[in-house]
Amino acid sequence: MTTPALDQPVTQTIGTNANGCTTDTITCNNPNAAGQVIFQFFNNGVDMGTDSGTGTVTDTLVCNAQGQLVLTLNGASSVVTDVECLAA
């Protein structure tokens, strides 16, 4: 039997990096520490990929020259406008 994924809250910590650029560190927790957590990233409704882990996933978005928040995962960078946190 497969357990359905449930939306979880996203915790945000806003900061500023050494270049004076805004950062947004986002964290997703699964109430079950041994359970899977998945961040799904979107740019104006377009799926930009996922990041996943066990128990907790944390990623940092950093502003670009246009002031947009950008996520870099596995060497690829994408503007992110929305994030969904799922726990299974």
UniProtKB/TrEMBL annotation:
Cite the Pfam families for this sequence.
C6
Q: What's the superkingdom here?
A: Eukaryota
Where in the numbering of this chain does the C6 domain appear?
10-85
InterPro entries attached here? C6_domain
Indicate what this protein is called per its UniProt record.
C6 domain-containing protein
Q: What is the organism lineage in this UniProt record?
A: Eukaryota, Metazoa, Ecdysozoa, Nematoda, Chromadorea
